[in-house]
Task: structure prediction
Amino acid sequence: MINLHGLGVALTTSFTPNLQVDVVALRTQVESLITSHADYLVVLGTTAETATLTLQEKQEIAAVVADQAAGRIPLVLGLGGNNTAAVIQAFNHFDLSAYSALLSVCPYYNKPTQEGLFQHFKAIAAQSPLPIILYNVPSRTGVNLAPETVVRLAEEEASIIAIKDANSDFNHVQRLLQLCPRSFQVISGEDSLALATTLAGGVGVISVIGNAFPEHMGEIISLALQGQNKEAYALYYALQDSITLLFEEGNPTGIKALLAIQGKSSPHVRLPLVAASDALAERLRHEMSLLQSLVLPS
Result:
């Protein structure tokens, strides 16, 4: 079973000025995150603007990341949707040989009941060639995967090994940690709650800001897993304002603006998203200058 402890990074999709996938920038990004000691990479998640990508583009991105990583780091591929049969069919559209697990988001728009969510993921797990990480993100899907439903899935489907939970209600997160089997891995999907979730018993985070500051976010999670609460919070507080700014105009608008400031990627996003305002970019630039002088614990 894949070990999801530590820092997972939800990759962005870099675009050229004419909004084509920038393969060169993608390779550079993957290489940078590997050398910065990210623990695993998540491909084709929310932050990748997957909703605006064609099937051919998704296949290309999955293949390029796999080729660049070359087995040096675990990879997770996002494959989910609101049509259960279509999700299962999508398993055949990708070469999954380099991937360790699939991240599957809760069905959106059609707003299923808890029983519907259970049956959806049960059907996917029965057909999946790889372990499944559930992805609960109520602010985007309009449904919340209840802790009790997660427990049912964890107990009945051995291939469902983890959940990325992006619920902003920490009481929900704590209930999840309380009820789930110890072997089941609870991963924070919220950078702002990553430290608290890890200290409460989670295994780490699938991070957005980790694209720009993998060393900082990785150290926060590492310290938390070692029980060094004071040191972890000191570093988190230094990063907190940047995390807040990243989501002020939506994701991945903020992280792409920050990556552009760093010279790592372009700020371009596809409609219906728009690039960050000049005001937000300037505030991100200021926060980045502060963080550049931050010395990480040795």
Summary: The first helix runs from residue 23 to 35.
